[in-house]
Model the fold of this input.
Amino acid sequence: MAALVATLPLQLVCQLIPTNLPTKDVKAFGKTEKFVLNFPQPQTPTIPTIPDGYVPYPDIGVAYKTYYEPVLWKVAKNRCTAEGGNLAIIDSMKKFEYVSRQLKPERVTHVGIHSLFDQDEWVSVKTGLPLTTIPWAPGEPNGDSRCAMVKYEKSGLCNIECSQIVGDFICEIPIPEGYKMPEERFEDIFGRITAN
Done:
């Protein structure tokens, strides 16, 4: 490119410079000219992050945020959607184990599985597709209740009446591609910081 610019007349070279760059008027020899102050710098790629309050679980590709605010299932679903996620889709024992660690005793916690459209078909709030591996507690689902939740003292999901039971809730977002877990840092007895 430099060789090309060197062989072009000055008027053509000036046409190669973008017009939206910052300029400054400089007066010299009784004439005012515009000079480009600087060229834009290349953009530094941004490192993907996770919103505050979410706990990442890279091995399952999601991050969870627990709200200890008893609300109805539909309110919980709408709150998660409003912040760019969905109620947690608990479709494996591993996800159930992660979520169970965040529960409070004697409380129920809403998750993103329901059978609102067909009593026999439990679907994900994220995709609307049927789920084939739901970690139900023994004897569940039972009755006509159409929304799933987790109870502190249960070993799997239970079904509840969507519009009558208030509970805490857990939102889920996907972990962004390229996300790196922050390094754990420790201070030794001499006050030195080390990464683990």
User: Anything to note?
Assistant: The mean pLDDT is 83. The domain at 68-174 is CATH 3.10.100.10 (Mannose-Binding Protein A; Chain A). The longest helix spans residues 73-82. Helices lie at 2-7, 10-16, 73-82, 93-100.
